[in-house]
């Protein structure tokens, strides 16, 4: 069963302690590429670096390329209901929460693929 996480750092720190951290980054890069977003993360990024860079990128997409942002959410399969539940007039808080939703969904994909593809 998938554990519950409090925030992006909690999730990424836990995943970094497993062998699946690089798979999470590969999946994230794949999803970004499939929607035409020219952004790639290194497997050498620490969990904090990954979270901060992704959050900054999400914020930039929201402000300057909303269509790509929505396409990314669709591609990753982040629930529309979850996105609607993210309430904040502060773009920093909003992008932080959306980043967490994205990472949770990607982790779920990676975890299930690893768990059930043996």
What layout of secondary structure does this protein have?
Elements: H1 8-16, H2 21-34, H3 47-64, H4 66-76, H5 80-85, H6 91-116
Helix pairs in contact: 1-3, 1-6, 2-6, 3-4, 3-6
Structural features:
mainly alpha, 6 helices, 118 residues
Task: Evaluate the radius of gyration.
Answer: 13 Å
Number of DSSP helical runs: 6
Number of strands: 0
Topology order in helix (H) and strand (E) letters: HHHHHH
Give the overall pLDDT as a whole number.
92
- Measured between the Cα atoms of the first and last residue, the distance is 16 Å
Which strand-content bin applies to the residues?
A: under 5%
What is the 3D form? globular
Multimeric status of the protein: single chain
* Sheet/helix structural class: mainly alpha
Number of domains: 1
Unreliable sequence segments: none
| Main sheet makeup | none
Proportion of residues in helical segments: over 70%
Tell me about this structure.
It is globular, with a radius of gyration of 13 Å. The protein has helices at residues 8-16, 21-34, 47-64, 66-76, 80-85, 91-116. Helix 1 (8-16) crosses helix 3. 25% of the residues are buried. With 118 residues, it is mainly alpha-helical. The model has no long low-confidence stretch (mean pLDDT 92). The two termini are 16 Å apart. It contains six helices and no strands. It has one domain (8-110).
In brief:
With 118 residues, this protein is an all-alpha fold. It has helices at 8-16, 21-34, 47-64, 66-76, 80-85, 91-116. The longest helix has 26 residues, at 91-116.
């Amino acid at each position: 069963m998938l554990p519950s996480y409090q925030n992006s750092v909690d999730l990424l720190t836990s995943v970094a302690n497993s062998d699946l951290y690089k798979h999470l980054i590969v999946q994230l890069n794949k999803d970004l590429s499939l929607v035409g977003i020219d952004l790639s993360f290194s497997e050498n990024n620490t969990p904090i670096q990954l979270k901060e860079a992704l959050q900054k990128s999400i914020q930039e997409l929201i402000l300057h390329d909303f269509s790509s942002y929505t396409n990314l959410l669709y591609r990753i399969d982040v629930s529309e209901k979850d996105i609607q539940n993210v309430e904040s007039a502060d773009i920093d808080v909003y992008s932080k929460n959306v980043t967490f939703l994205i990472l949770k969904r990607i982790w779920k994909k990676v975890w299930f693929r690893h768990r059930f593809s043996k």
